[in-house]
């Protein structure tokens, strides 16, 4: 049975358990003189039986589904004839994909060696066995646990407290998932990054000015020795982010000021959602716009002025990214400006200052820390933004500050290194994780600082 | 003392200057808003201008003579014969009949007017109606991509027209006579991806997106709501809870591509789940949208006034009953609104899905959560990167489909907020 069907079946079983539990609690209450004599309402006895039925079964199902492929693969590799047992991880995955292609019928058996065909047959058989075993195990666990739960229903049992504590644990587990996700991120990037630094030295990665990750995938392949200096990537990222900020900060800030101080309610109620629409547009659309409209426009325009501009310029990617970030800056600044108490405004206006003087000399300084926090968050977003730069910035790692030249960014390199076929013991693939680690650390640092500033500032007037 | 101006005089003198400054400052604000809104306008105009032609297809209507002898076919119910038969010849003959000045030597040029898949359309039609053999039928086929580009963009310099002068003249003539015509591009909504732009459609991507979103919704909504309930209602004030809170806020600001790395390392490498399937895509997007849903759900729970809780507690409800029977139903509209916005973000997300392999070229419409699939934004990415310009209009058209989904989701969220959210 498929995992999804099995899941549905478990839920049906849980419903049955609920019904049986409900009925049994009522039946037990009957001779005592009604459900008044139960410790909890019949609903809770039913819910308890259902939870008993469903939770262990789902745990078993999840564990089985998560690890069955790994176990089957290990079994297949282990049962291959000794001359075929792969020596590297890359070969193993190649062999496995060959075997599974034969098994699924995508690759006709005539094209491969007989042991592989045998392995494919074994794979099919193992998969079926695993599927069957999983179904039997999950169903029996579910029925057994449900039955036990049902058996233990007694009038004296406080089912409500039990159900509530199980629910509370489930709620806690959901909240803890956030920690698990973070741990997952840290371990997944840290582990591969560690392996990367076993191959490439720290000094080369952090201080190297040359990035060309093309390395030989096979020992006998002719390829350039890869160079993994991250400086050009980070300067490219910073250049594009800086351009984005040059566009987003003034536009976002001034529109926020106008909307919060000058615009009447009517204008505000139209313009604000329109600005927020900019934030809701998927980044791939901005990337499309940057790559196919803005970049050609910039290079044509520059050519008409007699300046040489690359067709994939940092300016195009950064400018469009700036447009994307405008609503982010404007709504954050809007919040902060609105949080400045009205008394400050009134005081300044009463002294005879004009509105713009009030804004520039009183409100803006008061709101500045909050605005800085918002801008830092926006910078972190620009650094981590992927699709626009993947589509509109280039692949060549240039160490340049000229916005008309093509540069590449950290996220572009992560995507290019990890799309397509990979081998997890080559420095090329592992480099993507090292870059991911740097990106994670950089944005984390910015976020922590920004959130601290924003929070600290907000407390001032409360 | 006439040369020493009074204070009032100074103020009056400077007023003009100050008012000018005031007006300038106000103008800056208006200019900033104008820039932002014109960017929005240009973006939409550009996408629509590039993409509206994607909703139009070019067709060729021909009187096809289904002559058995010409096609080497004498029994249309025989599978083997159908496989071997020549379905190109009747099309060429029909086209030659429509273009009187073309001779037998122009066969190749004439054949290039009609879509290479037209012969398959013809075969399928004959398979479905074996009695058509020997008759002449009027049928409509897709035109060749080059014809399609010429008909739509013949006067646009950006597109290189691949038809020869002679072919262009024929197409002009056939257009005038209505043999070549344009129609609403239903193919775009009923096909998966294809190497041939005129056959490429978004159905596969839409189904892939729906499957992925289903997984995301089913996982992230209950988990997000449960986490929010725990943090708001049950969590003790201790280090662990603080840590969870800080974590959730940070996760909301982690770049999405990092979640792609997580998915690749954990779901694909560690658990050995298959690549480019909606199940894994949904899991990755779940982790990504969870913080958004938790944060908005917490805000919704917070907005339920304490009096409701106290009243319920006052008549003896347990903490859990207070939450599930009273707080949750009142907070539900706010939670749903936040979740719709989170789902809209997930629907437009591309980067993490690239890393888990959802960029594969997939022609078939996916049938389940473990079928290889692609999603709408990734489809846009794939088409936008294609060197063939005919794919650019498909990409723009797909963007319009994607934006339609997104804007309607956001509109639904706004409507729900207005309609259902209660102020206390």
From TrEMBL, chain A:
Keywords: Cell inner membrane, Cell membrane, Membrane, Phosphate transport, Transmembrane, Transmembrane helix, Transport. It is found in: Cell inner membrane; Cell membrane. The keyword Transport applies. It comes from the Bacteria. It is a multi-pass membrane protein. The keyword Transmembrane applies. Residues 234-450 form the ABC transmembrane type-1 domain. GO terms for cellular component: plasma membrane. GO terms for molecular function: phosphate transmembrane transporter activity. The chain crosses the membrane at residues 49-67, 132-151, 171-191, 238-259, 279-302, 314-333, 362-383, 430-451. GO terms for biological process: phosphate ion transport. Belongs to the binding-protein-dependent transport system permease family. CysTW subfamily. Part of the binding-protein-dependent transport system for phosphate; probably responsible for the translocation of the substrate across the membrane. This is Phosphate transport system permease protein. It comes from Marinobacter subterrani.
From TrEMBL, chain B:
Its main location: membrane. CDD domains: TM_PBP2. GO terms for molecular function: phosphate transmembrane transporter activity. It is found in: Cell inner membrane; Cell membrane. One of its GO terms (cellular component) is plasma membrane. It comes from the Bacteria. This is Phosphate transport system permease protein PstA.
